[in-house]
């Protein structure tokens, strides 16, 4: 299975790049959302290192943990890879905003994907920011739900 396990993603030339996981992200996004993730020429390396939008993924456990965050998402949340990957994804929102976040997670689990979400998040420094026009989708591998991913290109300080 290409899904990163225990926060570990394959490396290629020292970067956080896993072509199999990238294929899972893209194929599920295309199948569920109906649009390509990153365009037809996107590569795993580009998505991780250079994409101008955030991409995050968490596993399918009862308390999901981040398994992927591209560099744009790491900058947005002010965590590096080692800090963010493995962290419970619920901690991306303040306690009083977690119910709203959980409603999104549950809706995506039920419906396959959701678009247009807007939510308040918190960075490592305590900076609060809005993520806007979020698309979130299920990651399904060999018929099994293995996690969820989200992408957004707009965020602003609260």
UniProtKB/TrEMBL annotation:
Coiled coil: none annotated. InterPro entries: MEKHLA (IPR013978), PAS (IPR000014), PAS-like_dom_sf (IPR035965). Gene3D superfamilies: PAS domain (3.30.450.20). CDD domains: PAS. Signal peptide: none annotated. It comes from the Bacteria. Residues 29-156 form the MEKHLA domain. Transmembrane segments: none annotated. This is MEKHLA domain-containing protein. It comes from Herbidospora solisilvae.
């Amino acid at each position: 299975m290409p899904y990163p396990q225990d926060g570990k993603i394959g490396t290629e030339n020292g970067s956080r790049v896993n072509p199999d996981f990238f294929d899972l992200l893209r194929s599920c996004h295309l199948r569920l959302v109906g649009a390509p993730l990153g365009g037809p020429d996107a590569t795993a390396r580009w998505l991780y290192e250079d994409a101008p939008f955030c991409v995050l993924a968490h596993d399918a456990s009862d308390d999901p943990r981040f398994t992927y965050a591209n560099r744009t998402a790491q900058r947005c949340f002010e965590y590096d890879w080692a800090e963010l990957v493995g962290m419970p994804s619920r901690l991306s929102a303040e306690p009083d905003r977690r119910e709203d976040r959980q409603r999104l997670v549950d809706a995506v689990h039920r419906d396959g994907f959701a678009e247009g979400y807007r939510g308040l998040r918190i960075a490592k420094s305590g900076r609060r920011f809005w993520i806007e026009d979020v698309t979130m989708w299920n990651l399904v591998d060999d018929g099994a739900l293995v996690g969820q991913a989200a992408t957004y290109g707009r965020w602003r300080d609260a």
